[in-house]
Amino acid sequence: MLLHEENCREQKARRFLARYYYDIYCLMQAGIAEKAARDLDLFQRILEHRMFYFKHNWMDYGTIAPGTLRILPLQEHMADWASDYRDMVKEMFYGAAPSFDEIIVAIKDFQDRFNT
């Protein structure tokens, strides 16, 4: 939901938090993301929590729903997200890390399945 919110922000206010794409990727690899995606009660509770505690005036929370969840950034912002990921990998990884493209392909598949 945080990534959906960030991707709905105006460009000048957007924060590039590529580490969250890596986190989702790891949750997917462990099978946790699929389990969580099937728990729509959990989804609703998290949404209600975000609406109460993080109520951003620029966010239409009605767009955070199965069928309309947008985890991936728009294509025109992808280079900025990839750059943020490369910077993160340099500072936080000591071994091999998945490429940003690999992460994006996996998350696109997850997003598409969740939204259908």
Can you describe what's shown?
By secondary structure, the chain is an all-alpha fold. Helix content is 60%, strand content 0%. The protein is globular and about 40 Å long. The mean pLDDT is 91.
Please tag this protein with its features.
globular; single chain; mainly alpha
SSE topology sketch:
Elements: H1 2-8, H2 19-29, H3 32-38, H4 40-53, H5 78-92, H6 100-115
Helix pairs in contact: 2-6
Residue ranges: pLDDT <50 for 5 or more in a row? none
Outline type:
globular
Binned, the helix content reads 55-70%
Radius of gyration: 14 Å
Q: Profile the largest sheet.
A: none
Q: How many angstroms does the end-to-end distance come to? A: 17 Å
- Structural class computed from helices and strand pairing: mainly alpha
Residue-averaged pLDDT:
91
Question: Count of DSSP E strands?
Answer: 0
- Beta-strand fraction estimate: under 5%
**How many domains is the backbone divided into?**
1
SSE arrangement, N to C: HHHHHH
- Counted by DSSP, the helix tally is 6
Task: Give a short summary of the structure.
Helices cover 60% and strands 0% of the residues.
